[in-house]
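Hi U.,

Before I forget, here's the chain from the pilot set. I'm dumping it here mostly so it's searchable later in email.
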Amino acid sequence: MISPFRQVSHEADAPVSASDRELYVSHPPAWQSGVAGVARPHTPANDSGVIAILVAVMVLIGLNMRHVRRIFRSMSQDLLSVRRRANVFDEHTASETRVNVLQLLQLWVYEGLLLMMWLWRPSAGESVGFIAVRVGLMVGLCVGLYLFQFASCATLGYVFTDQVGATLLRRGLLSSQILLGWLLILPALVALFYPGIAIYMLLVAAALYIGCRICYISKGFRIFYHNFPSLLYFILYLCALEIIPVIITCRLAMEICVKS
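Structure:
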């Protein structure tokens, strides 16, 4: 016995025309046809680790901006002046060291990012977070370069001048590096988010680095220069402590990017 609620198909209900038969033909969904998608390339600009590093540095600097403004008021004197008698109005608070370290961290991060943008080549096989590791390695190289420069500065001050001259030289190095860290913000961010013009930003960053080093070197020259034969020692200083360390750092960065 057939249930009255059961639908029964009859032979007369079968499609007879072409339009009727088309209605009963099963087609695959539209999304199953077309051109196969291509995976989005993984770049430093969309790497969450790189963005987290940049945001962390910006937040730390922003939280200490009040102390940063105080340091900037005396930066021109620390960068250029060789006056040996301290001003009674010069202030060096306990928080100044912490803020200086944060500003140096800013410098190292942007230098490392620019090194990465200089040597980075797109690769489909890079995993998420791998670019952030490379940036971290570049930052470590920049930290090592600064520590070498600081040790060289302290050694030169200890051997060739008195305590006041050594202090002036160290503060000149610190001020030039802090100033460079602020100047590199725009080139580094533009190179990160607009890789098509990264080469121009790298040239701008190189010019800024050279300009800040010239300020520091000119201050050291005025501290150490006594007579014409001292120019020989100055030339040796340029080769040994200003040119060779930068070349070695670039070579190490190339080795890291090639082998990693």
